[in-house]
Description:
The chain is α/β, with parallel strands linked by helices. The chain contains 9 helices and 13 strands.
Amino acid sequence: MMxxxxxxxxxxxxxxxxxxxxxxxxxxxxxxxxxxxxxTRVSPDGTIYVRHNPxxxxxxxxxxxxxxxxxxxxxxxxxxxxLFPLEEALRLFSDCSNASQRLCIDIKDxxxxxxxxxxxxRAGLEQRVSFVSWIPQTxxxxxxxxxxxxxxxxxxxxxxxxxLGRAADRAIAGCCAPFGWFVFLGRNRCTEAxxxxxxxxxxxxxxxxLPAALVDVLSNSRGGICVQRRLVNGKLIARCLDLGLxxxxxxxxxxxxxxxxxxxxxxxxxxxxxxxxxARALNQPDISGSGRDSx
Length: 295
């Protein structure tokens, strides 16, 4: 597998400002990068939008407005722009992408898995979509709904920390603890419905390895796991190979960092914040690169 085929455009970054917009989608499809990733959030009226941050960060007075209308008071200047419905994003991807490109949908709110799947099926894209989520319950729900799309769970794997990681795993196994808009889950809480933490949070399962039920669902879907790049090591790669799981990692900003992870045969996909720049740089003779990511 060529390295460039492992390149994923994280939130469509680098293809327009702000990220996760229709303009960025068109540009990314035009470049032909293999994997395009978007995030989804559910608005107060139940509409699914392409958006990363929780909807609850918006002022109470704000209401969902049609795509093309400026959101004048968003949670950050970086995310100001047109509200982009998932339905429109799927139509745009279908119209503008080539047959080899895949759309990765990172679901951020629990309880609307059936609507995601309905929209994807209506667009005729189930075979070209991968569902990604930090919410293990969302992965399990999509499996129960019978999707044929690969499923990828993002989480914090503590395997590289040895005995300290195993001790932390045992200590937090029963936890479901909020910290601001983050919700941290232990392994024993990954199958329970998230209740009041279903929407408006960023979830994170923290454990050494995964419960068998999740491993079975992920491997049977031809999917896998996604971890922060500093958690990738030989043990994790070997375990993924043994379990039949793909290994995805996030996220890099330089050619050198991309090459470092893409060269590892056990890594399937590398999230990139400057995918167009990296794709262009990979076509240059020297692929050793220079520079490091700061985080």
